[in-house]
Protein: C2H2-type domain-containing protein
Amino acid sequence: MLLANPLLRSVEVQRNGLVVFLSVRRVEEAASRGEILCIDCARFFRGARGLRWHRMTMHEESYEDAREAGERQLVVYQEPPHGGGPHTMPDYAESGGGGEGGETVGSDVTPVELVEKRGQSAAKEGNLELLKQLIDEGLEPARAADRFGCTCLLWAAGGGHIHICAYLIDHCGVPWSQRQHKDGRTALHWAARNGHVAACAFFKSRGADLDDGTFNGTTAFHWAASKSQREVCAWLIHEGADVSRLNKYGCNAIQWVAQSGDLGMCRWLMEKGVDVGLVNRNNHSCLHKAAIKNRMEVCRWLLEEVKLTPHIHMAADSDGQRPSTMAQAQGFYDLARYLRSFEDS
Structure:
């Protein structure tokens, strides 16, 4: 939470409940040393690369999302045209941005906010009677959202509660195409991610495009595959979804699964025609994705069974990092040695 205070820069609530106060002086001193603030945990890191590695390992972001977050965060340290301290943080930092804790530290929850929170919980749990009661008390389900932009419809879809979804759409005027403001996920994306085939079919019947992407182009197939929702993936394929669709970083679904480490899902996706040898726009292959999360079993499969080509699929990425150096940097020394044995062959 940013503050209009001459001494304090921000107040952040961490996952463990610890409240961190950052002074203006601390932020300016860090900026002078080239350190960048992680807005989700209020820690500083040396340069964009340091912040990127932190967000990948501690916040479990993809390489591409972590890189983009680091580039956006550099705005904080640009000098304004007429001198003075760092710029105000971007809007996404104030709107939730993925951190833990409340948006209004130290403030009381208003009656309207309380009704909205109860409404989201009712939708999440599939409690239609409570949801109707809260609507009678003033809940506006088409508008009410948590700090990440999740509405009652998105919570209901994520829980697979079709009766709630139908009520919100048919009786409350909530558009079935509603998106989460943080990353553009729709109800279909949440249903697919959480393994609810019937809910996916419901949204398709209402007009949802199975290949529709989030703001970064991630589709329902990406989400389902990354969470090993094989039944949803099979349904999407049967219904004509494009299994080869790439997000804006050039990643396909099997790259996401290589990073999550589900070897069985990797094999299944390859059988379904997903290109295991793809190299994305950052020059990442499945080996890069697996290496950064210490997925030894996946790396062995890629090199010994699939037989990816080392000079292509183990080449340096746009930051000069090979799969082996990624593993080494994270302390995965056995994996790093294994990968180097192929680089040197």
In short: The longest strand covers residues 8-13. The beta strands are 8-13, 19-23, 35-38, 43-46. The radius of gyration is 22 Å. The mean pLDDT is 83.
